[in-house]
Amino acid sequence: MKDALALPQSMLVLGGTSEIGLATARRLIARGARTVWLAGRPSPALEQAAESLRALGADTRTVGFDALDPASHETVLGKVFAEGAIDLVLLAFGVLGDQAHDERAPLRAVRVAQTNYTGAVSAGLVAAGALQAQGHGALVVLSATAAERARRVDFIYGSSKAGLDTFAQGLGDALYGTGVRVMVVRPGFVRTRATADLPREPFATTAAAVATAIELGLRRGAETVWVPGVLRPVTAALRHLPRALFRRLPL
């Protein structure tokens, strides 16, 4: 994928059992991707995910990866890139946490922050360095609309995504002109297994819809993608509401 607007022939999904990550892999395989690496904690679920992509015709491999072990990231990603060029790295791992419980258990809140932010900073920098060394590629980072403004119901998760979002934007600026680009994806509420027990929010979307938006973003060379697109103006309006009024909204 040396043309910045071309779709990838090879990809690495950090968070190999992520529903969004797998939906994106399936979509890109249908568009010509032939090599897929799924990076995640070794488990039957990871192997099942790999088998499902092999059934679509992709050469799919797995590699052990733990977001909470930054010291291992350079070694793990180095093994992947040593096997051949990677056109796209999709940073798809993350945890929602449980706001009500995590507020009363600081170590649980720290785990959310370490996974969603610290682990992503480490993996993102390692991946960016590897892409830059090969001279081309894209890093797609799954952020969230929750990163735009703290909400009472999920400010621990939202703050971790806010840090990730700012990091990814800055990394994109740092890589500008190198042949490597960063695309930040900001989905709203995504209906997945992880959110099945949560109340459905306005403008809810699906993993397949996020995958479609990622493909379209890659095609047009976007730096930021909102899913669904209507969330861009909605979130902009909410971001500038006076705090006293924002607190009164049913968010």
UniProtKB/TrEMBL annotation:
Annotated Pfam families: adh_short
An example molecular function term from Gene Ontology annotations: oxidoreductase activity
Keyword field: Oxidoreductase
SUPFAM superfamilies in the cross-refs: NAD(P)-binding Rossmann-fold domains (SSF51735)
Record carries keyword Ribonucleoprotein: no
Family the entry assigns: Belongs to the short-chain dehydrogenases/reductases (SDR) family.
Protein name as it appears in the record: Decaprenylphospho-beta-D-erythro-pentofuranosid-2-ulose 2-reductase
Organism: Streptomyces malaysiense
